[in-house]
Amino acid sequence: MLNLISFSSSPLGALGQIALLAALAFTLAGLGLAAVGGVRPDARVTEAARRATWAVFALVTVACAVLMVALLRDDFTVRYVAEHSMRASPLWVKITSLWGALEGSVLLWTWLLAGYTFILSLTLRRDALRPWALGAMFVSLLFFVGVCASVASPFTPMATIPADGRGPNPALQNHWMMAVHPVLLYLGFVGLSVPFAYAVAALVTGRLSDHWVTVTRRWTLVAWTFLTAAIVAGGWWSYETLGWGGYWAWDPVENASFIPWLLTTAFLHSVQIQERRGLMRSWNVWLIVLAYSSTVLGTFLNRSGIVQSVHAFAGGPVGPVFLGFLALLLVSGIALAAWRAPRLRDDADLPEPVSREGAFLAGNWIFLVFAFMVLLGTLFPTFVEAWQGRRDASVGPAFYNAFAIPLGLALLALMGVGPLLPWRRADGQSLWRALRPLLIAGLGAGLIAFGLGIRSVGVLATIALGAYNLLGLGLLTARAARQAGGLGTTLRANPRRYGAYLAHVGLVVVALGLAFSGAYRAETQATLTVNAAPTSLLHEQVQVQGIRRELRPYGGSTVATVLIDGRPFQARINTYTQSGSTGFPAPAVRYSLLGDTYLVLTAQDSAAAPQWVSVHLIESPLVSWIWWGTLIICIGAGLTLVPPGRLAPRPVPAGLAPATD
Length: 661
Known about the structure:
4-stranded antiparallel beta sheet; flat; 60% helix; 11% strand
């Protein structure tokens, strides 16, 4: 690592590397202090470990700041800057280049992990879990800081300093969402380290009551919210950038972010059973261990080069290192859980199938099966390559849709009836009383949709289950409002419950968007002559008005002005200096509540006489419901974090009270 430091070759690179090495030293010291503070126990030693987290966060922040300064100053003495930036890049592209390649993305992950650890150090209770939770966070920090300071250092100096850099990956500067999606994803991934650390602390100390679950619920929910927003933001990036009119292709790296989301969603539901009934203690430990481990698995897939993906980095030295860390997490988690198995017994027998906890448990199994099937489809080509030595095996969307659609519908069915069921056990009469209005609403909505011309079985089922869920949530809210004397009162009394209800409403909206845009998407391709008479495509009149070329220091764009039913669309093909003649489409999208019109320029010839363009026109109903539904989910999740009573109105001073009769 010391050969990476050369003030004469790269002063900024040397400063950044020294900051990482110092952070590594404080991480080692903090880990040792946390272990000693937990074994003795000694509050003073634990306090020293807590303060070591501050130093690690400060030093990693310095390293990030140094790399950002190097990018903004075009300091090509730093290899990372020379290989992934260039002088002509816009400011926002230079900023996002910090995480646009392997070494920088690992540094961002490390900084966020250090930030989470710092915040945790400020909120930790003074109890027996404290030193061990810090120690578990230090273990993760030790790995990531060590990787940044060695095999994936972004501060390697250049032997020969180039006049200009190679520039960033063109696909990553084709849309501003590159500034949002990766950061949200890492906030979600890294956030799961905190509940994992608490689970480890509970297992080490044997304090396996419900305390650790209660403490980490907010941390888990924050990470889950970031991960939810990141997955959909990535879908929007794909929709706006890749020019295929879709948002989810079951790509291996997409799947790698979806698996932790499924496991974390299962955990958030099952912890309610542990809090309320003292059940599923062992189950919850396994879930959070698997959820955090799956984030490392996703990072391994993204950075090892073993999967083919538009999102994946090329193969490098960090792949085996991440695989080793993944093995460490799994082996340690399994060993600790096996060691404490006698203390992980539940307070009661397994829940009755027809009960609220029974519905939650059934939902958990569906989430687990879903995650396993996605993992199987993702890794299957890799297994085939390892076994047969060829890389031509693939798993297409048909495989995933074959189980995703029925499992998704099953989750919607459980989501509607579960909150209506009582705890412990529901008799047949109670079950029928809860289900009857929901089934009537679902059947009525399905029949109305069928009468309006909907013939897709999947869409009809989604509509029926959507109405079924919305009525169930409405009944629960209305019942509570009557008992509490008003909707505002019940919301202030239990924002956690009604935030969850709002998140479920958002999920119904997303499900409807997925169903309609998947089943009723229509598309066509055509080659059109500039200034020719309008052509009818997908029941719309399409006419090309002209083609122009826009030049920029970092590349250029070919822009076609197209009228669709009289409305102008500007579809582009962007080229970048480092990509030569390879074009990257920038579709023109007209967003609408009922459906999007999506136009892609696929080819053109501005030198021909007459000029012509080839376009791909797509009509996708209700796509925007996916984006709006996700916003509703995130607002609902945020509402669940509000403590009860915080939403109460402030008292009005007596002198300002409104006059009354």
